[in-house]
Write a structure and sequence with these properties.
Structural class: mainly alpha
Strand order of the largest sheet: 1-2-3
Distance between the termini: 45 Å
Largest sheet: 3 strands, antiparallel
Shape: elongated
Strand content: 5-15%
Amino acid sequence: MFWVLFLLAAWAVAGLACLRLCLAAVRAAAVQPRAAAGEHALTLYEAAFLSGGPRRVADLTLVSMARQRRLLLAHTGWATVVDPCGRDEMERSVIGAIGPGGQSRIAPVRAAAAAADAVRGLADRLVGAGLAVPDGGADGVAAGVRRVRIAALTVCGLGLVSLAMPLPATEPRLLIALWFALPLALTLGCLAITRMEIHPYARWASPAGQRLIGALVRQADGSADDRSFLTSVAVRGVHAIGEPDLRAAFAHRETYTGEHGERRA
């Protein structure tokens, strides 16, 4: 009967994950935009935050300055300041993150700019307008979906371990598998309902924010101007960059060595 302990653990993991996902869905549905938010025209910075969070804002700022030839992003992963005068708070945050030397690796610049006061202020304004998720996505629907997926895999793993254990003849393996199928069905059913009702899962944007992002994308479709290019970067990320040199520059951004030798994302 030792497998019963694994079954209880499977139910606990599945139940807790599904409960947290349900609570996240309720919180997301309860976020109400201000009356003026429905008429709000998103800026590119706002669209970037709602689509990808603080780091997407930093990416957009870097790409925008590079497009204007005020920042050089080398294919080796280095950023060099050409024009030290930032035109807004975001650009000044990037220039400040690069430092007085005027040159730095892109990865630490991106991390520092994403944590700057300008991005936090932008987040607060979007949350206040009901366009962003208040908790910054840590307990949002997207995170809840990931937890339920992990729970489903955990239930499968616990079930397989239980079936691999030596069992007495009075405990048929088929019956044990059916017992583990119940918490697995709970997690899979929760995922199916969430996909039908809430998909796409937005980590940062509220339902009202998602609608504004969709409207912004529709306005940019069919246009080949610079704003359309930046809109694509804001909504889809640096993977939307079609210029080989810029793609190569951001290919070095994922990890870097900190001051004390540690590796950071």
